[in-house]
Amino acid sequence: MSFSGKVKEEISEVMSSARHCRIAELAVIIELCGKLEYDSDGTKILEISTENDVVRRKYFTLLKKTFSICTSMPPRGEDAETILETVKKTGVEDLNSPVSMTILKQSCCKRAFLRGAYMCAGSMSDPKRSYHLEMVCQREDQATQLMEIMRHFGLEAKTIERKQHFVVYIKEGEGIVDFLNICEAHVSLMSMENERILKDMRNSINRRVNCEAANITKTVNAAAKQLADIELIRDKMGLQELPPNLRMIAEARLDHPDATLSELGGYLDPPVGKSGVNHRLRKLSEIAEGM
Fold first, then answer.
1. Which of 98, 177, 200, 245 is the most exposed place for a label (fewest CB within 10 A)?
2. Spatial contact of 237 and 250, defined as CB atoms under 8 Å apart
3. Is residue 31 a contact partner of residue 98, using CB atoms and an 8 Å limit?
4. Cα gap 88→162, rounded to integer Å
């Protein structure tokens, strides 16, 4: 199962003890997946259009716990009317309109709303690869309300129109972790945090390795340039023509081509510090450039 699917499974098991929170979650499920049908005698049937068994299972569980409707069949007749009246949706024209804010007054209800919205319309990339959470809405006003609810919790969500749909998304790992916490998906949260830690460690190690490799390359290239300068001076004028301090460092570099500047200074008598060695090698470079 994908990471996104595991998140949906986990939050589908979160059942609010408060009736008003269950109503909020039902309201958003009906908003995003609801569909009204009528049988031959005009009886109203409240269905949900989804291929996700997690959503369907949560829908019927919420109906059972909130309205004592114990059935796996879509509610109809008076049951359907009662549900629609409770979630403040009274007809086909507003079935998929944004949830009434009178249902979402409390933060706990807003949490339930986000759980339902993610189950119906959400997806999330595997944190091993990237950080991306999105929820796809059919209508712009749905996306606007979803963003407002997310901002209530301090989530920095953005929206984009894609193929006549409106997508609300978060691309930062920290924001997705906060979203999981708000939805009470604590197992998924810990799994993602573990992946974030591993990824940060790998990135840190890679940065150090790359930095060290760059430093080694820089040192090797500098040493090769120093050797080339000294050999040019030796062949053109002879090292014996150099001042004693420059001749000693030139000879030390020829004898120890792989030594660092600090190591090179230790071979001199008396020893010279790294800055002193660097100064002398720069002098040799200036001499070589003048030839």
1. 200
2. no
3. yes
4. 29
Tell me the C-alpha to C-alpha distance, in Å, between residue 253 and each of 127, 136, 256, 267. 50, 66, 5, 9
- The arrangement of strands across the sheet holding 165-170 comes to 122-124, 133-137, 165-170, 158-162
Residue 235 belongs to domain spanning: 220-289
Q: Do 117 and 259 lie in a common domain?
A: no
Phi-psi region of 51 (alpha: psi -120 to 50; beta: other; left: phi over 0): alpha
Query: What Cα–Cα distance (Å) separates residue 259 from each residue in 4, 18, 266?
Result: 54, 73, 10
* pLDDT tens string 191-248: 888 887 777 788 788 888 888 788 778 888 887 888 888 888 888 888 788 888 888 8
| Structure token pair of residue 173 | 């790992």
Neighbours of 87 (CB within 10 A): 24
Whole-number pLDDT of residue 104 = 94
Which residue's entry shows tokens 């919420």? 62
Q: What is the DSSP annotation of 260-288?
A: -HHHHHHTSSS---HHHHHHHHHHHHHHH
- 3 state SS of 39: coil
Same domain, 29 and 165: yes
Q: Which of 143, 148, 109 is nearest to 24 (CA)?
A: 109
Strand 122-124 relative to strand 34-38: parallel, antiparallel, unpaired? unpaired
Q: Which helix (H) or strand (E) holds 87?
A: none
What is the number of structural domains in the chain? 2
How far is residue 69 CA from its own chain's centroid? 40
pTM of the predicted structure, to 2 decimals: 0.70
Does residue 139 belong to any structural domain of this protein?
Answer: yes
Q: How far is CA 176 from CA 190, 207, 238, in A?
A: 12, 25, 68
Instruction: Specify the higher pLDDT residue, 213 or 133.
Output: 133
Which of 91, 12, 88 is CA-nearest to residue 46?
A: 91
